[in-house]
Design a protein that fits this description.
This protein is of the alpha+beta class. The protein contains five helices and eight strands. The protein is globular.
């Protein structure tokens, strides 16, 4: 998504509407391509910095207009590829990563990440293809749970279990609660 001299196969968007190639605003294929490039940028930023980028940062990082970044965020949200904060419309969740602090902290490759839930705290080491140390809290009493993932295997204190308050088919009714 760079202007001039960009990588082959990328769109050039900054400062013009692409009327010369697409006859107006971006068509469905270009929107889709832009959406996936935005999603990749969000994940790369999250892995590197521990938090998702703002739409403005995504705009600057991909050299696209801020409105294009925000529109791509909305399309990705509608596809359940990202979850946006209902008020700010910034990235709240890029599964399995959380954009806000939670009781599920994952440390891997010298960085710290927040997970959305107990399920996602195990998804982060899988997504990173790396070992990790996990700090969580038992819901019943708030006591600490310390686990690790080593060579793809879960290690740690025994006796715990994961409880989901809603069945999977209802998670998007209140994804923050779930």
């Amino acid at each position: 998504m760079r202007t001039g001299g960009g990588r082959p196969g990328t769109l050039t968007l900054r400062g013009r509407r692409r009327e010369d190639e697409y006859g107006g605003a971006l068509g469905p294929q270009e929107e889709d391509r832009l959406g996936w490039e935005v999603r990749s940028f969000v994940y790369a930023h999250l892995v590197e910095h521990g938090l998702p980028p703002t739409a403005e940062h995504t705009s600057a990082g991909l050299d696209i207009e801020p409105e294009q970044a925000r529109a791509a965020y909305e399309r990705l949200h509608a596809r359940h590829a990202l979850f946006l904060d209902p008020e700010t419309r910034e990235v709240r969740m890029a599964f399995p990563f959380s954009g806000v602090p939670t009781p599920f902290r994952v440390r891997s490759k010298g960085r710290s990440y927040w997970a959305n839930c107990a399920w996602d705290m195990l998804g982060i080491p899988a997504a990173l293809h790396a070992d990790a140390d996990v700090e969580a809290e038992y819901a019943e009493d708030g006591s600490p749970a310390r686990l690790s993932v080593e060579d793809g295997r879960l290690r740690g204190e025994g006796g715990g279990f994961v409880h989901f308050p809603l069945p999977l088919r209802r998670w998007y009714e209140d994804l923050v609660f779930t």
